[in-house]
Automatic annotation (TrEMBL):
The keyword Thylakoid does not apply. Gene3D superfamilies: Isochorismatase-like. Residues 31-224 form the Isochorismatase-like domain. CDD domains: nicotinamidase. It comes from the Bacteria. The lineage of its organism: Bacteria, Pseudomonadati, Pseudomonadota, Alphaproteobacteria, Hyphomicrobiales. Residues 1-16 form the signal peptide. One of its GO terms (biological process) is pyridine nucleotide biosynthetic process. This is Nicotinamidase. Keywords: Hydrolase, Metal-binding, Pyridine nucleotide biosynthesis, Signal. It comes from Bradyrhizobium icense. Pathway: Cofactor biosynthesis; nicotinate biosynthesis; nicotinate from nicotinamide: step 1/1.
Length: 233
């Protein structure tokens, strides 16, 4: 065991190329952390509270210190937004309807522009974040994705912003894994970014099998599933 203890983690990895140990990921200037929708309505006590949603906050605060580029997103709906069940007579939250742009899950009213419920968590501590991008602000179009609205064509400008800043790799954290995180990750791939979802820095809603479906879709699209511990501190 003396010999074994003398071996560094690096040399053990060299002896075992089948990955007993992966080198930590070092975020560089071409890397950006996208912190998705860490807003009061998605946290305990909010109208669309994600189970254990608050547990992502300390994890995100810690990993954000490793990133020079951080973008925060905010779900930002009009009153009477098309994604609200209350905007469709006889409909209840978590039912789905078909809209001109595709299938839409109906939600409790949430993240209405300018309300305290739409504010970012006061416990989020990322003073160096360079951009807060709002989405879902057109009354008749939802936008889970931070890149492209649900009509599949209206851009938020985020891809152009990241490309202008020479970002090549995006890392996603936040809420909810199976909606805004997953749709943003899939669009990040479509826009040509190397894409990582930090699983333990996210929590899901999981309605009608949505969480398993989201991971299947992300894996198929080449999104890498990692843990916060995989990122160098
Ligand atoms: C979200 C449902 C409705 C999200 C936003 O942030 O994942 N989910 N609006
Ligand atoms: Zn929303």
């Amino acid at each position: 065991w003396l010999v074994l203890t003398a071996l560094s983690a690096t040399s053990i990895a060299a002896l075992a190329p089948t990955a007993l140990w992966n080198a930590p990921i070092e975020p560089d200037d071409a890397s950006a952390l996208l912190v998705i929708d860490v807003q009061n309505d998605f946290l305990p006590g909010g109208s669309l509270a994600v189970n254990d949603g608050d547990q992502v906050v300390p994890v995100i605060n810690r990993i954000a210190e490793s990133f020079a580029n951080v973008v925060l997103t905010q779900d930002w709906h009009t009153p009477g937004h098309i994604s609200f069940a209350t905007s469709h007579s006889g409909r209840k939250p978590f039912e789905t309807i078909d809209l001109p742009y595709g299938r839409q899950v109906l939600w409790p009213e949430h993240c209405v522009q300018g309300t305290e419920s739409a504010s970012l968590s006061k416990d989020l501590s990322i003073p160096h974040a360079g951009l807060v991008i709002r989405k879902g602000f057109h009354k008749g179009i939802d936008s889970y994705s931070a890149f492209t609205e649900a009509d599949g064509k209206t851009t938020t400008g985020l891809a152009a912003y990241l490309k202008a800043r020479e970002v090549k790799r995006v890392f996603l954290a936040g809420l909810a894994t199976d909606f805004c995180v997953a749709w943003s990750a899939l669009d990040a791939r479509k826009a040509g970014f190397e894409t990582y979802v930090i699983e333990d820095a996210c929590r899901g809603i999981d309605t009608q099998g949505s969480l398993a479906q989201a991971w299947a879709d992300m894996t198929k699209a080449g999104v890498k599933r990692i843990q916060s511990g995989d990122i160098a501190g």
